[in-house]
Amino acid sequence: MIRTMFRLRAHPGREADVVDAWRDVAGRIAELPGALRQALLHDALDPHALVLVTEWSDEAAWRAYQAGPVAGQLAQALGPLCPEPGDRRVMRDVPPGSTVYVDVELTVPQSRWEEFRRGYAEVLDRVARVPGYLREELLREPGSDTHHIFAEWRSAAQFHQWIGNPAHAEEEAGPIAPFLLDIRRRLFHAVADPATSREPRTGREADVHRTTDVLVVGAGPTGLTVAVELARRGIDCRVVEKLAAPPGHADKAIGVHCRTMELWEEQGIVREAMDVGIWLTGNMVFVNGVQTHRMSWELPGLPYAHLGLPQYETERLLTERLATLGVRPRRGTELISFTQDDDGVTATLTTADGGTETVRATYLVGCDGAHSRVRELLGLTFTGGLGRFPQLFMLGDVDVDWDMPDGHLLRFLHETDGRMDGMLVCVPLRGAHRYRIATLAPPRFFAQTGGQDAPPGFSEELAEPTLADVQAALDRLAPPGTRASNLRWSSVFRISHGIVDRYRDGRVFVAGDAAHLHPPAGGQGMNTGIQDAWNLAWKLALAVRGIAAPGLLDSYETERRPEGEEIVGRAVRMAFTDELDRADLERQFLQEMSMLLSYAGSPLVGESVTDPEALRGGPAAGDRAPDVEGLRRPGVGHPLRLRELTRGTRHTLLVYADSSADEETLHAAAELCAEVRRQASGELDAYLVLSPDARAPRLLAPPVVVDADGGYRAGYAVAGTALHLIRPDGHIGFRSCPLDADGLRKHLHLIFGGVR
Description:
- InterPro entries: ABM_dom (IPR007138), Dimeric_a/b-barrel (IPR011008), FAD-bd (IPR002938), FAD/NAD-bd_sf (IPR036188), RIFMO-like (IPR050641).
- The longest helix has 21 residues, at 524-544.
- This protein has four domains: 2-202, Alpha-Beta Plaits (2-Layer Sandwich), CATH 3.30.70.100; 212-279 and 303-386 and 498-592, FAD/NAD(P)-binding domain (3-Layer(bba) Sandwich); 390-494, Alpha-Beta Plaits; 606-752, Glutaredoxin, CATH 3.40.30.10.
- The protein is α+β, with helices and mostly antiparallel strands.
- The protein has an eight-stranded antiparallel beta barrel with strand order 1-3-2-6-7-5-8-4.
- It is built from 20 helices and 37 strands.
């Protein structure tokens, strides 16, 4: 018996048309000689993906179908409905080949779907480490609770070795064990597909062809954020990472900024981050042993404080969140080359087993760090050249015995004749008296380079600093009597800084350290990369779906590159000073936390304000949209935050009106909301925000919320009628006072083009 499985992705909104096209042809397939079964399955985690299944009595029957008119009719019907040709696997139920396919049929009641989905994400993470396991997909039979776990293994022997050990199988599959009590399992072996003239994935020589909407290169915080945001919007993406395993020690970013915490609230991981991190509550600076200042970071009005969290924990949380969306990074997979044309990007990858893979993507995003292969292949250069600090630095993870306040970042500087010649930074880590220390490396490390410049980043060639090296730095710069112990990890690194000349080249983008490098002062690198991803992903999603205006993707560089330039410059200036601006430390801290980030200079934001005093004191177009408490919605027994309305993947239109607005104005506002929802292809939610003394109109839409405590009126400085359009990234895209319907339509045209 021969089975074929043809996986394809429909254009968004055309899934039902694919089903209809399949039904029209499936009946003709059933009449062919040797046809045994025809079925259509849905990807349980991807609403746009479907799998067409056929089974044949023998290879001759299948090949006759392939060469006949019915297969051509199916291809002709599916062509306009699917953006790419699809991926087909061919298998048989008796072994000639090494690759084995396992089809596990099980029942997942709809009432228990969320329980299964959470457990399944954990199983995917566990089984990925089993020798011989390659990949799998979760499929669902339409209109039923029957699901299929369709897995691919490198060889039948490796699969049987795993399944034959009950302890291992129970350990990996434990989270979904209650659903595996009554299953049907079938095994198939790969055979050649004459339609593609290639062998299936059977080893080192395989050349696998895949298609996806967005290929993300790099599984650090930036790449994972891009992937999470795309997956939340139903966009198919693949994440590849050349490192075979995630890092296990705190060798990179520690500080998570307030604005990043807000983004994590949107993504659903902020509670988990707080559970495993610690709060960084302030900082202290000492120069030549004398305290020069101390500042509390626990400022009133901040939605979150500054969190201390090692980057490996950040990557773990984002990876787990991504798994719940059905995407797992392909580790041990490295980008070798790519080409691009008017329709997409073709990338060549090497895989963990030594094979090669060709991926066709609509867009590619390079999030592959300081030594970015994407940046290299694009030929991007650093504006003004790549700057490198002449000094070598060392990092260490140690316990420190001293009398210092908990939760404070500590900086000890030594100056001679006004010039800094010694620096020690100590950042608290989770655990009693545990710190990450950064300081100048002892001279012997520079001597090991032979007097030549050490490469930027962490050095694998130079020896690891010792506990004695750490203690020597503490003896020179920290308070007398300070002792270090329990060195868990250490390394030598070289600081480089710069920003690339452009963030986009055609269908390829760079983000994070691939686009900008800066000193670790202020913990800017990781947080800035996450902000890059947050800005880019929602725009890419609209472009993939074909509803973005032509210039929307250009706004990524327009908005993010100036911010990158400012952050690189500020981090370089701060690297060897005791403080950048003592006159306004609070504003400086808020700036470092990205709470003052604004895209006010972007052509993608705008406003229409007839009275110069209108909206004065409120957030401007391009600013972060502040949260507001105390909103009331009919039928809800507790007050709401504004963020509960704006949270999600779409734009949010907020139309405000007080008692001065008459009924005609309110009805016109309702019609405007309906109109712009159509203009945005449904990618816009709208709410009517009323002052407590305003009369609520009898409208079915938009939904009405009441500014019961006046927080919205005060926070957004509104009166009479006004509107604010909040972008998916939480920034104000457009505002007007009074309502300017035509101005709003023109602004949305910049985002959605001529879509209706």
